[in-house]
Amino acid sequence: MTERYADVAWEEETSDATFTGVRFERVNFTGIELVACEFDDCEFIACRFDSAKLENCRFSGCHFYDAESEAGTSFKFARTTGTVFSRCDLTMANFSRADLYEIELNDCQAQGADFSHATATHVVGARVALHGGRLVDSNLSYADFTGADLRECDFSRSTMVHAILDECCLEGTELREVELHGVSAQGVRLAGADLRGAQIDGLDVRKIDMTDVTIDHVQQQVLLEAIGIIVAD
Is the CB of residue 80 less than 8 Å from the CB of residue 54? Predict the structure, then answer.
């Protein structure tokens, strides 16, 4: 029989625990601290991790989306330092205003997820700030990154078709081989980003600061034609 938790509030801080094949239904993890916990092939249905601290946790093959209600799991204001989501279904998940420093999404489905105003920055002392996170090989189509600060993150090989990047800071990011068709990118900041191999026909470079952006020869022609320059053979 599948182990199941339903309609409860998780009240205790939990560390170094392993959950395999567990079904969590309407479990409230709000404000709870989970440290170095592992979740393998678990289901989270209508659960909330708002303001939770998920430190160095690992979720493998987990499902956070309820197809029946078409609702995702909420991680609003959560802190996910060093937490890894591998092969997870995070469709419609809400990471709005979450602290995503050193988060990793690897081979995940996160269509329509909300990352608005999230940050991947860790402040050390008064003057030092560290940045970074990895959202690689994942489906981020229709995701909302409005106002997020994800500088120096790695999005390599992810799909971001029709994503919302308005006022998003992607300075110094790895965007290699990323699909960027049909994105909304008003005020996006890309200075220093690596776009080699990315499909960038959805970007209006006339309105984007491309300082120190790295592109390849094929992309050069696409970008020049976008601003009205014809490249002759």
Answer: yes
At 27 the three-state DSSP class reads coil
Partner residues linked to 79 by β-bridges: 53, 99
Angle at 143 between CA 141 and CA 147, to 5 degrees: 140
pLDDT digits (tens, 9 = 90+) for 197-225: 888 776 777 778 778 888 887 767 666 66
Token pair 């026909």 is found at: 201
Could you report how far apart the first and last alpha carbons of the chain are, in Å? 67
The β-bridge partners of 45 are 25
DSSP per-residue codes, 54-104: EES-EEES-B-EETTTTEE-B-TT-B-TT-EEES-B-TT-B-TT-B-TT-E
- DSSP lists the bridge partners of residue 81 as none
